[in-house]
From TrEMBL:
Organism: Mycena albidolilacea
A GO molecular-function descriptor: metal ion binding
Location(s), subcellular: Membrane
Domain Endonuclease/exonuclease/phosphatase: 9-297
Name of this chain's protein: Inositol phosphophingolipids phospholipase C
Length: 444
C-alpha cells in the first residue's frame, strides 16, 4: 500500500434502471476495468441498482475493502464511495432544491441528489473527508442564469460542507459530476468559498494552444468528460452550442484542499501537503467487443501527491479570529472568500428564480381553483348524461381533473413555498456573508 499519494477515480455510471441503454453489460464492463486499475478511492455517480453496486464493490474488494452506498430521496442518491483505507464516519446531505416534482423527465427531484462523504483514516494524513456529489442537471450553459438557480443552491450548500470539513482540521477531497463547466458560476462558488483546487487545472497549468482540436485532443488536452463525439451515447444526439463548439464538456472533477489549521510552533514539523501531479480522462474507448461506451461520461482520475517537509501557509479564516497557544508562531494567514462578482451574480440569479417561482405558483394555484370549479360542474352535470356510453368517459375525465387539481395544489402551494423559502434562505445567507466581508474590509 503506497502512502506517498492518494489516487482518486470518479465516474458517472449512467445506471438508470429501465432507462439507461445497455446498463447491465456496461456496469459489468466497468467493474472489470476498475478491478484492473490501482486507485485508493473510487467515487461513483448514477449507480442506483444496489446489486450492480455490489458487483462493482466485490470486483475491487481485494484492493479496496471499505465501501458505502448512500440512500437519499425516493429512488436513492445514486452515489457510492469505495476506499482502500478504513472508513470511520459517513454523512449524507440531500440538497434543498433538486428540480420540480412535475418534471418527471428530468427526474432530479425523485432521486434526491445530495452531497455525501466518508471520513477515512489515512496513515500519513490522518482524517481525510472524501466527498462525492452529483449536482442538478438541467439548465445547460446558455440563457439566463436563473435557469441554473437550483444548481447554484447545490454548489453553495456543497461549498459550505467542504469548508466546514477543512475547519475541523481534515484534508478534503471532492469528486463527482458537478454538471458545470469550469468557467461557470457554480464552480466559482465551490473554488472560491471552499478553497478547493481543481486537479485538472493544477496538473495542466498551461492551456494548450491548439486552435482546432480534434475530439481526442478535447479529451486529452482539455479534460472533456461528457458530450464527446467519441462517446457512443453522445454521438449524433442534439447538443448545446458549447458542447458543439468545444467538442464536449468538462463536467467531472476531482477537487482537493488542505485542512484549515492553527499556525504550528516553529520547531514543529509541518503537516503534509496535497498536490495534484497527474490528472487524466479514462475509459474513453468502447466496451471490449461491443459498439457502445462504458457510460455517457468518461472517467476522471487524479494523483494527489502527499508532500512532507513542506510548510504550507496557515489558513484559518480571518486573522483577528485566529487563536494560538502561548509560544505558537503566528504565520501569515490566507483567506479564501467569494469574489464580489460571484456574490452579485449568484444573488441576482436566485432573486430572478424566486420571482419566476412566485409567478409560476400563482398560475398553478389559479389552475387548481379552475379544477375545483370544473369538478363542481361535473358533479352537477352528472345527473343529465344523455347516453349511458358517455358515463365511463365522464368518470375518466373527472378523475383527470381531480388529479390535475391535486397536482397543481401541491406544486403551487407546498412545493412553490418550499422552493421560494429555500431560495430566500440562500439569498439572505449571501447577503449576511457579503455584509461581513464589507465590515472586515472597513467599507461599512
Amino acid at each position: 500500500m503506497s502512502t506517498s499519494a492518494l489516487n482518486i477515480l470518479t465516474l458517472n455510471c449512467w445506471g438508470l434502471k429501465y432507462v439507461a441503454k445497455n446498463r447491465v453489460e456496461r456496469v459489468h464492463a466497468i467493474a472489470q476495468e476498475l478491478a484492473k486499475l490501482d486507485h485508493d478511492i473510487i467515487a461513483l455517480q448514477e449507480i442506483w441498482v444496489f446489486s450492480e453496486y455490489e458487483h462493482i464493490r466485490d470486483s475491487v474488494a481485494k484492493r479496496l475493502p471499505y465501501s458505502k452506498f448512500f440512500y437519499s430521496g425516493a429512488l436513492g442518491s445514486g452515489l457510492a464511495l469505495i476506499s482502500r483505507f478504513p472508513i470511520i464516519g459517513t454523512s449524507v446531505h440531500p440538497y434543498s432544491l433538486n428540480g420540480s416534482p412535475i418534471d418527471v423527465g428530468g427526474g432530479d427531484w425523485f432521486v434526491g441528489k445530495a452531497a455525501v462523504s466518508i471520513i477515512i483514516s489515512h496513515p500519513v494524513l490522518g482524517q481525510v473527508q472524501i466527498f462525492n456529489t452529483h449536482l442538478y442537471a438541467k439548465g445547460g450553459e446558455d440563457g439566463p442564469e436563473y435557469q441554473r438557480a437550483h444548481r447554484l443552491v447545490n454548489a453553495w450548500e456543497f461549498s459550505k460542507l467542504a469548508r466546514q470539513a477543512a475547519e475541523l482540521g481534515r484534508y478534503v477531497v471532492a469528486a463527482g459530476d458537478f454538471n458545470s463547466i469550469p468557467s461557470s458560476v457554480p464552480m466559482a462558488l465551490i473554488r472560491e468559498y471552499a478553497d478547493l483546487s481543481d486537479s485538472w487545472a493544477v496538473a495542466h497549468p498551461i492551456a494548450p494552444s491548439t486552435s482546432s482540436p480534434s475530439a481526442m485532443d478535447a479529451i486529452t488536452l482539455f479534460g472533456v468528460t461528457a458530450d464527446s463525439p467519441l462517446n457512443s451515447y453522445s454521438a449524433g444526439k442534439p447538443l448545446g452550442p458549447y458542447a458543439r463548439k468545444f467538442l464536449g464538456k468538462r463536467l467531472d472533477y476531482v477537487l482537493y484542499r488542505q485542512p484549515l489549521r492553527l499556525p504550528t510552533r516553529l520547531d514543529d514539523d509541518p503537516l503534509p501537503v496535497l498536490k495534484c501531479t497527474e490528472c487524466n480522462v479514462l475509459l474513453t474507448e468502447k466496451v471490449p467487443g461491443r459498439t457502445f461506451s462504458f457510460s455517457d461520461h468518461f472517467a476522471l482520475e487524479a494523483t494527489l501527491e502527499i508532500q512532507t517537509g513542506v510548510r504550507a501557509p496557515a489558513d484559518l479564516a480571518d486573522p483577528h479570529n485566529v487563536w494560538a497557544p502561548p509560544g505558537a508562531a503566528r504565520g501569515p494567514v490566507s483567506t479564501s472568500e467569494l469574489s464580489a462578482d460571484s456574490i452579485t451574480t449568484t444573488m441576482q440569479a436566485l432573486a430572478a428564480c424566486y420571482r419566476f417561482s412566485r409567478q409560476r405558483a400563482r398560475k398553478e394555484l389559479s389552475l387548481f381553483a379552475g379544477c375545483i370549479l370544473m369538478l363542481v360542474a361535473l358533479v352537477v352535470g352528472s345527473s343529465w348524461l344523455p347516453h349511458a356510453w358517455i358515463n365511463p368517459i365522464f368518470i375518466l375525465f373527472t378523475v383527470f381533473v381531480a388529479w390535475l387539481g391535486t397536482t397543481m395544489l401541491y406544486e403551487g402551494f407546498l412545493y412553490g413555498n418550499w422552493e421560494c423559502n429555500a431560495l430566500m434562505n440562500v439569498i439572505e445567507e449571501l447577503e449576511i456573508y457579503k455584509n461581513s466581508l464589507e465590515i472586515q474590509a472597513g467599507t461599512r
